[in-house]
Amino acid sequence: MRIRVLGCSGGIGGSHLRTTSLLVDDDILIDAGTGVGDLSIAELARIDHVFVTHSHLDHIACLPLMIDTVGELRTRPLTVWTSAPTLEVLRRHIFNWSIWPDFTEIPSVERPFMCFRELRVGDEIDMGNRAIRVLPAQHTVPAVGYAVRGPGGTLAFSGDTTVCDEFWDAVNALPDLRHLIIETAFPDRDRQLAVMSRHLCPDMLAGELEKLRHEADIYITHLKPSQMDITMREIAETLGSRSPRMLRNNHVFDF
């Protein structure tokens, strides 16, 4: 199994900052942020499933454009998987004919370019030699994380979350956890903002990682572009023994 980071930033800018999206092999996306826009049309057309963590724009920005671009090139609908509250937001506020066409009805209700599938925390979707498990998360809107399991181990992704004991209970129950991708959006000087926006800062991250029972490689995602250096410096000072690394675009996990 191969997971390629298409985007992992908390913002955009220049040639290297893209918002959240992970490409699993060549047919599954975890989130559909601006990093998806770097894929070729042929690569976009090979994607059959999109697993969305939550409804914020930095995680769904390319979903409407992607389905508009490749819908007619596909022989079956693109399946968008997410929680019921997030599905409702996508239906009501994105694919609503005002912001964007409803591709669950195009070219017809019987043969649409896109379909929605509801997920609940704890669900595990079998994808042949891979499986996607839904993890709990806590954010300003209903949100989930995901664990991607293949023959060589498991990668867990927090999505956007604040302090969440249930997330760690679920992560600690995963078999053969190899990699953990967890968000830290703000430096400690903005702790109040992190708490208000239900993200993490380094000090909060340190408390959360005390709950991790696996020996896994830890990668930091969702850093705010103007604060990346200070946030990673604080993480290194606070969590040096765990050696967390900054996730970067085009990082590839092979396992």
UniProtKB/TrEMBL annotation:
What highest taxon heads this organism's lineage? Bacteria
Q: InterPro entries under this entry?
A: Metallo-B-lactamas, Pdiesterase2, RibonucZ/Hydroxyglut_hydro
Q: Can you tell me which residues the record assigns to a coiled coil?
A: none
Q: Where is the Metallo-beta-lactamase domain?
A: 18-204
GO:BP terms for this protein?
A: cAMP catabolic process; negative regulation of glucose mediated signaling pathway
MF terms in GO: 3',5'-cyclic-AMP phosphodiesterase activity; 3',5'-cyclic-GMP phosphodiesterase activity
Write down what this protein is called. Answer: Beta-lactamase domain protein
